[in-house]
């Protein structure tokens, strides 16, 4: 059941290029047009247009009731979304930086994630929490974290990390449809990247790994901004005579691991790339799944993780760059891995 | 209807029956627990029955509540089925949560109970959000949000009450001030005399009520509910009351005196309301006795039925994590 | 000493010099940023100089502060070295944080600055804890805790102010109410007129001050500091002020009018205090000009020295994660 | 540098049996006697003696200033500890249930963990956050989580999970000494278990895996309450003719993986047991480390994780038991793994 996107090239009929943030905005707008229950709440999403400009003109289109500016009260507004969802609405909360989910963790983890289960299925919490994650903007340690592994570790949450404008739109529409709480993590460096996006509100289902390219020698699994870095690295590696696959699980929960295991079985080599610190990070889960499966016996080399340093994100640009994998690092890691077998 | 006083015999009887039912339910739980027939931990509301009863009687059936770890009374007040409640506590498949939630997570969406909460102050933002939903849809429903004095020191209280205040949401914040958050007294946990004194920080009305007087509670909450329903926004109602039992099953009562407990037992809200209804001639001694018997009978029946139900089934735990699309 | 007014020439000069230094620092940052020589984002406090200056002058050198994302002024007010500040913003190894922190994390433990904070309200519990340390050790030191109007809607504010109130900790909560939390005005974010109105919820004094009047700020904070130092506990001081620039570098100012900005620019705290000191004959025009020159000169020197310093070194990032035993 | 505890048997000279909670209390008392900077704050730790009775009589010994009862304000009190630590104290915060760290996550993750780094080393935050974790008491989903993987994923935090009374005491003393923020996770089912504990305030260093037993056939790595379950399972397995090692890393950060990799290299089989849900859980990190090392080539069978269900913890005792690994489950998993090679 894998959706294979082997050649995400030029726009086809019914598509046009949008930026990632336009794609997110379009998804919200289409969902709000189609369903009165959908509304948005968050800090400065109104006339300001959002800290990263994502909500943009939605305030002017839908008004301040449904594009609702809030005080700086992350716990309160996530809780308000939980309550509104329980009462039949479909809230979308924007948290300005995913670091501030720390403020709201009780409502995310102890409430939203568990209510359906704790109540024996008697109620559900259909809400989406959108938040930008990642480094690269010089905003330092409290504004640059990648905490996706935490959310993935919480039963009851779905966790989405779109890497392209098309995925941002299609996955967000699926997240809004979903009757469960969905954590939707947008990478801030992707907001200005662009790519073909369908005009129609087409859903990309949650739980389908994307295969961005197939290669003979090595499988790169990457998420978020690392997907495009992996694709850039793949181009360089081709020149070096190394032919790599690039796969993006897109949703960490549910995790569609079959295409990953298949591809690694075929290439015999896995390089798992994430921006987050390595220790207890999400790629450890992927490594573990490889090791638990018969793919283990097909490995030609150890599974390698390439992660951010086990350090906070620093402010200085040269320090920040050195803290998370860059294209060169992916190339180097792939070449090293090729030599290990 | 909503703000009708408890001065007619029907409503007085209903109030008394609700209080007795809560009392009997809690006593049954206490007993089952003591006999090792119940599991986990339990937070009993004996002594606080007037608060849950008076407040819930000020609500319409399509209004909602959010409740707390000490939530059996709210649940009963809002009209929950005793057998399903007891079945939940006895870890039965027929319980409100199919044995997954237990005492701290009973909810009954059908009767408007959006849920107890194991997290102190956890329900306050949720109540605010439900009220926002009603306001967005233009419905004239109200949410009553129960919480304790201890909860008023959590950030969640502050953020949620502020949201409700600025958006004039149809919610009534009902603080059951039983003088302690676990062992920590309100004298120590706050530098103000009343939780209601905090209302001024949000520009909303705050009122402190004798929480052992079911009529006073009802009147204050009814006013706040009309205010909320009319679009004028939230009110903070503080019901001053007392829990007779320890905080939970592991409490040794080291932080309060026997005398204090005795004083408050003397202020039993049920005994008091029985006297009131008889003085006023609303119910005679026989009618009061009939209420007591009815509560006792209902409880016995609930325990019997719950005991007879099948145990919660561990076979499909993973299925229940996510709601199906 | 602490509560001496700013009425002698020496202290008046110090106040004026501090305000000019803050202004020039912020302007230099604005300029470096505009020219692409500075990275990240910056939150400037132009227009708010009287608040940082008046407050910090009410402190002893061994008192502490906690600051915010808009913290350059507090840092300068507490006596930080301009070159090390500028070096930090320019991502240099000689910066206060060796390039690891940047604008939002400058601290100078030596001068008692426990740190700016990228988290709105993040410093409020920390200030409370530092004050607790002083109280536990029987020291007569005080913490001044800066935060914005927006921060007063965070749960952290509520919990920390309550702790300080019940324990009578030596901390002064200084809200710099510049009318906006990013784009959201205080009219919308609170249903009370003043942040200081929230003091009553904690049983502590609250006072609202003209935050563009450096003497008024100083007087109010000095009173609060003496109160704190004497063991009488915290005070909430609200300095009403305005930021001339956008919230951060990405602000398009869509949420406020040009007229409003112009009105507040007319209330420039520096121009105002220059007039006061001259009227009172504390400083003459030449002395005022000398202050201006000194501030400009110090800033130029800081930028020059910072620019000449070595870039922050990425080679030992992992070493810095844990403090060595 | 591994401390090997091959036979944690009867008390030797200078030891006597204490319960795990007595051991924690003794460590706090000794640290407070030795160092005025050490104090404790938390909800109901005073005259009540702590939600799990851990602080016990400390209030009577040290008074209410240093054994400081607090309002129900987790974010506030953790932040107060951060501030007190910055100002030269050595606070120990007790959070009643580790689930409520969700309330305080900003101060733990955005402040305590990062301050030393963000300030370029100019200050540090020597504090200990103690919290009971785990299920088994019928307290349901909001009082039974095991969130150790989250803390391990945050650079700047050390993470300790003692499994025995002796470790509880010795590791807590090291945690209090440490100049960094330490998350100290006590399993609530262990509080009443007892074992030999040194009378003296002897430190158990952070970052040393304990080897509880060595076997020829299979390496079990377990943490928290799973250590004793693994040891019980080992006894059963011996009767079944399977000879297992039982290792406990004790601290997740720093993680002393060398003894684990060595033992797995020797046995060729690894069974990683945790109570927390499997998805993105900490044992994934251990699995990944095995896969990244030459130990990979010594594996006779896939690495297996045995974890709690990817579900919240339910209330009913039979459901709760079915949600996390029991002794039988460990035995079964080990036998299955033996058959896989
Ligand atoms: C966030 C959080 N902190 C602590 C607890 C542990 N706890 C459960 S009930 C309680 C006391 C609550 O006091 P109050 O709000 O006054 O309610 P009461 O028990 O008196 O009804 C505490 C500390 C919790 N469940 N949640
Ligand atoms: C917890 C948290 N939420 C949101 C933000 C994003 N943010 C940074 S500053 C700011 C506005 C703060 O307003 P205020 O406290 O009034 O301070 P001011 O900027 O006006 O000085 C916001 C929303 C943040 N840094 N931290
Ligand atoms: Mg209470
Ligand atoms: Mg402001």
Instruction: Report the biggest beta sheet of chain A as strand number plus sense, adding barrel if it closes.
Output: 7 strands, mixed
Q: Which homologous superfamily in CATH is the superfamily of chain B?
A: Thiamin diphosphate (ThDP)-binding fold, Pyr/PP domains
The name of the CATH architecture of chain B is 3-Layer(aba) Sandwich
Could you tell me the CATH topology label of the largest domain in chain A.
Rossmann fold
Q: What's the CATH class of the largest domain in chain A, please?
A: Alpha Beta
Number of helices of chain B: 11
The end-to-end span of chain B amounts to 40 Å
- Which percent range describes the beta-strand content of chain A? 15-25%
User: How much strand content do the residues of chain B show?
Assistant: 5-15%
Distance between the termini of chain A: 32 Å
Q: For this structure, what is the CATH class of chain B?
A: Alpha Beta
Strand order of the largest sheet of chain A: 3-2-4-5-7-6-12
Structural class of chain A: alpha/beta
Proportion of residues in helical segments of chain B: 40-55%
List the domain count of chain A as a whole number: 2
Class of secondary structure makeup of chain B: alpha/beta
CATH topology of chain B: Rossmann fold
| Domains of chain B (count) | 1
Can you describe what's shown?
The complex is a heterotetramer, with 2 copies of chain A (341 residues) and 2 copies of chain B (325 residues). With 341 residues, chain A is an alpha/beta fold. Chain A has 2 domains: 15-198, Rossmann fold (3-Layer(aba) Sandwich), CATH 3.40.50; 210-339, Rossmann fold. Chain A contains 11 helices and 14 strands. Chain A has helices at 20-34, 58-66, 74-86, 105-118, 148-152, 165-177, 225-239, 258-267, 282-292, 317-323, 327-339, and strands at residues 15-19, 38-42, 67-69, 90-94, 128-133, 158-160, 182-187, 194-198, 210-213, 218-222, 244-248, 251-253, 270-277, 304-308. Chain A has a 7-stranded mixed β-sheet, sandwiched between helices. In chain A, helix 1 (20-34) runs parallel beside helix 6 (165-177), helix 3 (74-86) runs parallel beside helix 4 and helix 7 (225-239) crosses helix 11. The relative contact order of chain A is 0.13. With 325 residues, chain B is an alpha/beta fold. Chain B has one domain (9-305): 3-Layer(aba) Sandwich (Rossmann fold). Chain B has helices spanning 9-34, 49-56, 72-77, 82-89, 123-137, 155-166, 186-189, 214-229, 258-265, 269-279, 285-308; strands at residues 64-66, 143-148, 171-177, 180-181, 184-185, 206-210, 235-240. In chain B, the strands form 2 sheets. Chain B has a 5-stranded parallel β-sheet, sandwiched between helices. Chain B is globular, with a radius of gyration of 19 Å. The termini of chain B are far apart. Chains in contact: A-B, A-C, A-D, B-C, B-D, C-D. Chains A and D meet through helix 4, helix 5 and helix 9 of A and helix 4, helix 5 and helix 9 of D. One magnesium ion (MG) is lined by residues 148-150, 178, 180-181 of chain C.
């Amino acid at each position: 059941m894998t959706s294979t996107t082997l050649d995400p090239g030029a726009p086809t009929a019914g598509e046009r290029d949008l930026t990632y943030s336009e794609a997110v905005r379009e998804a919200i707008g289409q969902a709000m047009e189609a369903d009165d229950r959908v509304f948005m709440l968050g800090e400065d999403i109104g006339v300001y247009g959002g800290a990263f400009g994502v909500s943009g003109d939605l305030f002017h289109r839908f008004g301040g009731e449904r594009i609702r500016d809030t005080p700086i009260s992350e716990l309160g507004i996530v809780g308000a979304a939980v309550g509104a969802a329980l009462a039949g609405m479909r809230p979308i909360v924007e948290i300005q930086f995913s670091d501030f989910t720390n403020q709201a963790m009780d409502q995310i983890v102890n409430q939203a994630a568990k209510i359906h289960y704790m109540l024996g299925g008697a109620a559900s919490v259909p809400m989406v929490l959108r938040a930008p994650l990642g480094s690269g903007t010089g905003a330092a340690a409290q504004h640059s974290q990648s905490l996706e592994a935490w959310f993935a570790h919480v039963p009851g949450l779905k966790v989405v990390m779109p890497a392209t404008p098309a995925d941002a739109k299609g996955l967000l529409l699926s997240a809004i449809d979903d009757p469960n709480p969905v954590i939707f993590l947008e990478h801030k460096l992707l907001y200005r990247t662009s790519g073909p996006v369908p005009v129609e509100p087409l859903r990309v289902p949650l739980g389908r790994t994307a295969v961005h390219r197939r290669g003979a020698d090595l499988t790169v699994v990457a998420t978020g901004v690392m997907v495009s870095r992996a694709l850039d690295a793949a181009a360089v590696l081709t020149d070096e005579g190394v032919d790599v696959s690039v796969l993006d699980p897109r949703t960490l929960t549910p995790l569609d691991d079959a295409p990953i295991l298949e591809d690694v079985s075929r290439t015999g080599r896995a390089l798992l790339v994430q921006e987050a610190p390595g220790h207890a990070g999400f790629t450890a889960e992927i490594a573990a799944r490889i090791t638990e499966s018969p793919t283990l016996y097909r490995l030609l080399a150890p599974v390698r993780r390439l992660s951010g340093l086990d350090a906070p994100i620093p402010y200085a640009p040269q320090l920040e760059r050195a803290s998370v994998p860059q294209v060169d690092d992916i190339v180097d890691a792939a070449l090293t891995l090729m030599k290990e077998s | 209807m909503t703000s009708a006083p408890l001065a007619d015999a029907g409503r007085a009887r209903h109030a008394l029956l609700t209080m007795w039912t809560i009392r009997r339910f809690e006593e049954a739980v206490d007993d089952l627990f003591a006999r090792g027939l119940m599991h986990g931990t339990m937070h009993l509301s004996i002594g606080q029955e007037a608060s849950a009863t008076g407040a819930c009687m000020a609500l319409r059936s399509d209004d909602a509540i959010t409740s707390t770890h000490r939530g059996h009374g709210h649940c009963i007040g809002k009209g929950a089925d005793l057998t399903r409640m007891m079945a939940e506590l006895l870890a039965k498949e027929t319980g409100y949560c199919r044995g997954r939630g237990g005492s701290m997570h009973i909810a009954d969406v059908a009767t408007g109970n959006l849920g107890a909460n194991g997290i102190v102050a956890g329900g306050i933002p949720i109540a605010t959000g439900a009220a926002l939903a009603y306001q967005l849809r233009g419905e004239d429903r109200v949410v009553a949000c129960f919480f304790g004095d201890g909860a008023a020191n959590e950030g969640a209280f502050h953020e949620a009450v502020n949201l409700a205040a600025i958006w004039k949401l149809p919610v009534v914040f009902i603080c059951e001030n039983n003088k302690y958050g676990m062992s920590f007294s309100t004298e120590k946990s706050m530098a103000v005399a009343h939780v209601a004194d905090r209302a001024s920080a949000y520009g909303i009305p705050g009122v402190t009520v004798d929480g052992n007087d079911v009529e006073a509670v009802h009147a204050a909450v009814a006013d706040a509910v009309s205010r909320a329903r009319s679009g004028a926004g939230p009110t903070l109602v503080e019901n001053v009351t007392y829990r007779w039992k320890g905080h939970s099953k592991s409490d040794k009562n080291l932080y309060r005196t026997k005398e204090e407990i005795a004083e408050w037992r003397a202020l039993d809200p049920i005994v008091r309301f029985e006297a009131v209804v008889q003085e006023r001639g609303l119910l005679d001694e026989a009618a009061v006795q009939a209420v007591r018997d009815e509560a006792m009978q209902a409880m016995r029946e609930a325990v019997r039925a719950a005991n007879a139900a099948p145990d919660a089934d561990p076979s499909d735990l993973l299925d229940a994590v996510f709601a199906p699309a």
